[in-house]
Amino acid sequence: MLEKIREGSQGPVAKIILGAVILSFALAGIGSYLGQTTEQPVAEVNGIKISQTDFNRAYQNERSRLEQQFGEYFTQIAADPNYMAQIRQGVIDRLVQQELQSQLAADLGLRVSDESVRKTILELPYFQIGEKFNNDRYLQVIRQMNFQPDAFREYLRKDMTRSQVVSAVAGTDFALESELKSAMALQQQTRSIDYVVVNKEALAANVEVSDQEVSDYYDLNASQFSSPELISVSYIELKAADINVESVTEDDVKAYYEQNKAQYVEPEKRRVSHILIDNSEDDDTAKEKANALHAQLEQGADFAELAESSSDDIVSGEMGGDLEWIERDVMDPAFEDAAFALENKGDISDVVTSEFGYHIIKLTDIQPQQVKAYDDVKADLRAELEQAEKIDAFYEKQTEMGALAFEISDRLDDAAEVAEVEVKSTPLLALNALPEPLNSPAVVTALTSVDLLEDKVNSEVIELGDEHAIIVRINEHKAAATKPLDEVSEEIKARLVNEKSSELAKEKARSLFAEVQAGKSLNDVANEQSLTLRQEAKLTRQSYTVSPAIVTQAFKMAHPADSAVVDLVNLNNGDAAIVALKSVTDAQVAANIDPQAKQSITMAQANKNYMVFIEALKANAELNLPAATQTVE
After folding, report:
1. Are 447 and 435 in contact (CB under 8 A)?
2. Which residues are in the PpiC domain (predicted)?
3. pTM above 0.70, yes or no
4. How far apart are CA 136 and CA 316, in angstroms?
């Protein structure tokens, strides 16, 4: 049960962060949260160790998030060790940031109040049923997470305290009116430029590549010309959901109902309220307090008022001690026995002892045991019977097709016939490009086994999920290998031509740029070289008709004075350009800045300042990051 909560705070940032915390529980479960710690921490921040357990928890949460984001493609993404290494490093960096924030919060004396923690618990939708906080739901969820109420409370308090630091830095940032106008003026500034592009394609005809150069390039870059391992797969797939069964009759459904009538009995439910006195610190004092409260109730005191003022279960206490409806085998046995021993609405129990402390229980309502009528459940019963028949047929077919696939191991036709499914095949594909359901880890493991690769036999039955199985065999296999030189020589030649053409373009651009610096106009240079002089009278930072490299450089160039400012730019496609900045036009910013633009500028500034703040914390901290991190996959 809940114990009395101490101090705290609340706010939208805290609620967002806590929502993410609860979501992370839902996504990744809590199984790895409370595992054994390892001797080797993943990082150490000012003497505080970040355990392997904390890292594994955060890493699994991140994996779960990515799996939801990318769906079936995540298996392919996760096959890239470099990508997963970046994910692991990102998780470590985030844990280090959080520890730095926690330490700063402690140094500043920041603390979250009991009221804020309590209110957050009441408002989190994860603990609600019908948009209303449910105490049973709350206790059930946190126990599934292996949390006791006090431990869960402190877990939330820690995250909420850390969020105060985030709010203080990012949430309180602002931009002065002059800063906003200056930023808006820069964003909306336009520039007038002339430019010419020296195109590498125009110079390609002058490039020659020898066979020796191709051969040398191949020898130095052989790893770039590897063909991946390829396989062609045949398979048969069996799903219970796809099996057709004979229609279930009304008599079948009625007979099933009569045979299983006990399953459709709704057990007696009781709605109770309680007052809890925590005995974890001083049992004698707690028992004395409970007896005193019981005496007040016998003298006519209001139960709800006493629960609100005196119960250590502060969540139910806010609702007069109400625990809503309970059934047997849900609560503490001693609590249940006392609650179900009460006979009439309004009856109050004696003081009851449980593992949580001392209780006084009040019966507020009774829902007698009920039997669901046949008409209310017959649709569900029919679906159950049909599903049961499908499952029976599935396992029968799975057994038969598995036996035939083993006996006749050089083909799948016989097994497919007995299972009444068709044999499907794929063309030659890389292992990381296999479609559903072949991209399952269990299937990929089978496809890389010696038996299937070398002996070309059928696999065993591979279970992919509930009543979902597959048998595979490899039709054709091509091992990964370096492509021969004659197969890639044209590709290499094209690369070399491209590289040499690009270098010629840059060399020519440098030569022409020198002429412009010597006093020749860009227009004259363009005419002499038969190049096109292009003009942009109002170039903006968001211009898409001009190469991004030219736009970026144009807005880096100094303002022109008496003559244009000229610079050389290498383009991303290998071309080169000469840019002449003729003039700069500052934007006229309106007196009333658009609220959306103001928010965008303020947020950008806040984000920049926050990252500077984090880097400053790192710079002043003693960080120890081990070279390698082991993860629980």
Report:
1. no
2. 267-365
3. no
4. 10
